[in-house]
Design a protein that fits this description.
disordered N terminus, five-stranded mixed sheet, six-stranded mixed sheet, alpha+beta
């Protein structure tokens, strides 16, 4: 296992204020099933009326949801290229009404990752990038491997890894090899955080397929499960052994395992299929570089780690973990500030005015898009327009303006403007809601 230097992360700051960001992580091997079961309980949101602004403090700021064994036959992949993947759509329909936006995702055959954030966080995300590593059939096939997503929020870098490692009781060495291949093979185009392990916060989740040590019989494991003897099972868990030996995940932390093994169940029952040894295959781990910055300490508080036993459509149980992490309060970088449109008429458009902060570098791939005020995915724009480049020598904090022609905007209502940066792969600004009025 290579050793990584964190010297590039040292940043001098005056002692800054910190704020708490709540993160909810989920992993579920769905065994090629469809999202037929209601997901509100799994995600902890109300199925009733939408929570009003200010009353949703208990909900997380970020949802990180990793799935494995999503249907990935050729016809499914073609349909998903044309329409939103069914699991992604089902998740978005559950959390979207509670002011969440799907900001990014990645897929590697059956491995699907989605990230949703509270809408007001969207213009503070920076440098969103994804990566995939195939480990199946010697790295040639994506039936096993990982999708990784990195972003920065309020001055802190975050990396998410969703993996599906090698199966079977005898596959310990291959699982370790897969872990190392994912760490070594994942690269991001951000110099300070080009590697997974360089990020301030890392959440690694998935069907890791680690089993119990070989001397444990099915009957012995079943007896410990009946007795709720989780501490004894943890002592013979392969992933725990890999951490202790340094083979894999030694730099990661996992919450206490206080729930039954999540594999292998008979579908639609609470009974194990004892043709296979039960195992904690589905896991969520985290890493934090506490001292990445001078004069301040980052931190993670894990508040829950549990399996959702009521979701029985797969032979795996979904697992969820909730965290509170520290980020820099009132942090702003590379921001675009919109002026409120004075008037906007359907079919005629309106004048867009915005100001670039001094650290914003524009690119020909920058555009401004119009969204309905309650949009739930960054792909739900109504219309967008690429921006003319500022003239040479244009000074920072200057206000730029242009007429936005909105012939595709046909419906009066409330909308927002978002500024997308092609250079930074993120949204640098979001306007307040404004009305688009019908023609008089």
């Amino acid at each position: 296992m290579p050793v990584y230097s964190l010297n590039t992360l040292a940043v001098t700051r005056n002692t800054p204020d910190m704020e708490t960001i709540k993160v909810a992580c989920y992993t579920w091997n769905v065994e090629t099933t469809w999202p037929d079961q209601d997901l509100h309980s799994l995600l902890g949101v109300s199925k009733g009326p939408v929570i009003k602004r200010g009353l949703d403090a208990a909900l997380p700021d970020i949802y990180i949801i990793g799935l494995q064994e999503v249907k990935s036959q050729p016809q499914n992949v073609i349909m998903d290229a044309l329409f939103e993947e069914p699991w992604t759509n089902a998740l978005r329909e559950v959390v979207g009404p509670h002011n969440y936006v799907r900001v990014t995702g990645e897929r590697l055959q059956g491995i699907v990752t989605n990230i949703f954030v509270k809408r007001h966080h969207l213009p503070h995300l920076r440098d969103i990038h994804t990566s995939v590593v195939r480990t199946g059939f010697g790295g040639l096939w994506g039936n096993k491997g990982a999708t990784s997503i990195r972003f920065s929020l309020y001055g802190c870098s975050v990396c998410v890894v969703n993996c599906h490692l090698a199966p079977h009781d005898a596959g310990y060495k291959e699982r370790v090899d897969h872990f190392n291949a994912i760490v070594d093979g994942t690269q991001f185009p951000v110099q300070e955080t080009s590697n997974i392990l360089y990020h301030d916060y890392v959440f690694w989740l998935g069907d890791m397929n680690f089993r119990f040590e070989g001397h444990m019989t099915t009957e012995g494991i079943a007896k410990f499960i009946t007795d709720n003897n989780w501490s004894r099972l943890a002592e013979v868990d392969e992933l725990k052994q890999a951490q202790k030996s340094g083979d894999a995940f030694s730099m990661f932390t996992e919450g206490p395992l206080t729930f039954p093994p999540t594999y292998k169940y008979l579908e639609d029952t609470q009974e194990y299929d004892l043709m296979r040894r039960p195992a904690w295959t589905d896991r969520i781990l985290h890493q934090v570089h506490v001292d990445a910055y001078e004069n301040v300490k980052l931190g993670v508080e894990q508040t829950t780690y549990e399996a959702a036993q009521e979701y029985r459509q797969s032979d795996h149980r979904p697992v969820r973990a909730h965290y509170k992490i520290k980020m820099f309060a009132n942090h702003e970088e590379r921001c675009v500030h919109f002026e409120q449109p004075s008037s906007w008429v359907i079919g005629e458009g309106g004048l867009v005015k915005f100001t670039l902060d001094s650290d914003v570098v524009t690119s020909p791939a920058d555009y401004i898009a119009i969204y309905k005020v309650d949009f739930t995915s960054v792909h739900q724009y109504v219309i967008y327009m690429y921006l003319p480049q500022p003239p040479p020598g244009a000074h920072s904090h200057a206000t730029f303006q242009f007429m936005f022609n909105d012939e595709l905007l046909q419906e009066a209502g409330m909308y927002r403007l978002l500024y997308y940066s092609g250079k930074y792969s993120c949204y640098l600004g979001m306007s307040d809601p404004f009305p688009a009025l019908p023609q008089s």
